[in-house]
Amino acid sequence: MDRDKIIDWGLRIVAAAILLQTLPYKFTGHPSSVALFTELGVEPFGRIGLGVVELITAILLLVPGTVRYGIVLGIGLMVGALASHVFVIGINFMNDGGALFMLAVATMACCLVLAYRHRSEVLGLVPGLKMA
Q: DSSP state, 1?
């Protein structure tokens, strides 16, 4: 496997792993997850709905033919997560030292680098848009 593929897979695995590691908290109704989504005003449907979307996103990132969809969903999810931290729940939610925020930043960074690396595939999702 060449260096570019190793980097690509590394980014995909890191982003997917971060998305997947939060799912047990969302799906079991862990008190910190319930508190977060209550603060956002979308408990319980937002918690479970976002968990399902995050699961789908992680799968799409790991399946070679669907990575472009995972990238777009991942960026969308992380825009929402980062905006929620900045404007509603704060960087340091429940005294976590900003850990949850930093996981969102790391996932966003992975997805943005992947978007650049797969730019022709990602831009191909927009009808009529072609790379120059």
A: -
Contact call for residues 98 and 85 (beta carbons, < 8 A): no
Tokens 């890191």, located at residue: 14
What pLDDT, in 10s, does the model give residues 24-42?
Answer: 999 999 999 999 999 999 9
Contact 94, 78 (CB under 8 A): no
CB atoms within 10 A of CB 37: 23
Task: Look at residues 22, 114, 105 and name the one whose alpha carbon lies nearest to residue 67.
Answer: 114
Compute CA distances 4 → 13, 88, 93, whole Å.
14, 38, 36
Distance of CA 59 to the CA centre of its chain: 11
Which one, of 122, 116, 125, lies nearest residue 8 by Cα? 116
Confirm if 104 and 15 have CB atoms less than 8 A apart: no
